[in-house]
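Render this sequence as a predicted structure.
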Amino acid sequence: MSAAAATAVRVLVVEDDPDARYAVSAVLSRQGYDVLQAATLGEALVQLERGLPPHVVILDLKLPDANGALLLRRIHRENLPVKVAVVTAYADAAAHPALARFPPDRVFTKPLDYDQLLAWMATLD
C-alpha cells in the first residue's frame, strides 16, 4: 500500500502497555496511516462510536478494564466494516476461547513482528 493510500486508512491501536502502543502507532504513522490509540476497552469503544470509525483495529486481548475480545465481538455483531488483528502473548492465540466464536482477521503473537504487521496491512488495500 502506498503512503498516499495508507493516509486514508484509520487504524485504532488498542494496547494497555504505553510503550507497545506507542511503538505500534509510530511504525504505522511512519507508513502514512492515520493512527488512533486506546489503552482500555472503554477508550476503544468511544473511538469506535465516533463519526469516523477505524478501518482497522490492532487489538490486545488483555486490557485493564475488560477482555479485548469484547470489542471484537461487538464489531462482528454489528457487522462493522472493520478488519481486526489481535496481538497477544498467548502462545496458541488462535485456540484462545475468546476468539473461537468471533475470529479476528489475523492473529499476531508478541513480541510483534512489524514486518508481518505491515505486510498484512498492505493486503487490506
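Summary. The beta strands are 10-14, 34-38, 56-60, 83-88, 106-109. The mean pLDDT is 89.
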